[in-house]
Amino acid sequence: MKLKLTSLLLATAICAPSVYADTPVQLSIPTINLPAGDVSGVRVSALYGRSHNVKGLNFSVLGLSDIDNFTGINLGLFYGANRTRTSMKGFELGLANFNGGTAKGADVGLVNYTVSNFTGAQLGLFNYAGSLNGLQLGFMNATNHINKGIQIGLINFDRSGTFVSKDLPVFPIVNARF
Question: Which tens digits make up the pLDDT trace of 99-110?
């Protein structure tokens, strides 16, 4: 009995770190991650996939890739879209890129939306950042406040005002604050 208990405890101690180790390759489909866990490497999400932490290369195919914290390159292929709930650092390319928290890097897509602070470049038809440090280049650009940056597009909206006047929130072609 004592030998079985000791063997069980030893096996648990040896295997426990591998349970918490990052996965080098993961396939995500609706409600299933194969294998489960955080990813440091490559992740492919088909239709819909949800993961907590991903570092590396992420592909969303025909659907939505949903990640809490992301660092690396996020590619939406064949109508793929990217959603990061808390923090994104890196490069995102997709039909739509949605960041629920902060983002640092580059977003390229038809629609790029960051709820909080965005630092870097947003390139798309519609770009939104809670606050902007960097560049928005698109048909329509919007922010609550440009900290340091520039908006280039047909319609540029800054809730805190434009470089022309604090009372004028919309300015065509170029709006900036440095």
Answer: 999 999 999 999
Expressed as residue numbers, the domain containing 33 is 22-100
Cβ-contact 169, 157 below 8 angstroms? yes
* Domain-terminating residue out of 100, 125, 158: 100
**What integer is the mean pLDDT of 88-117?**
98
| Tokens representing residue 4 in the block | 């079985």
**In angstroms, how far is the first alpha carbon of the chain from the final one?**
73
**Where among 42, 72, 100 does a domain terminate?**
100
How many domains does the chain divide into?
2
CA–CA separation, 29 and 134 (whole Å): 35
- Please report which residue ranges of the chain form alpha helices under DSSP H: 2-20
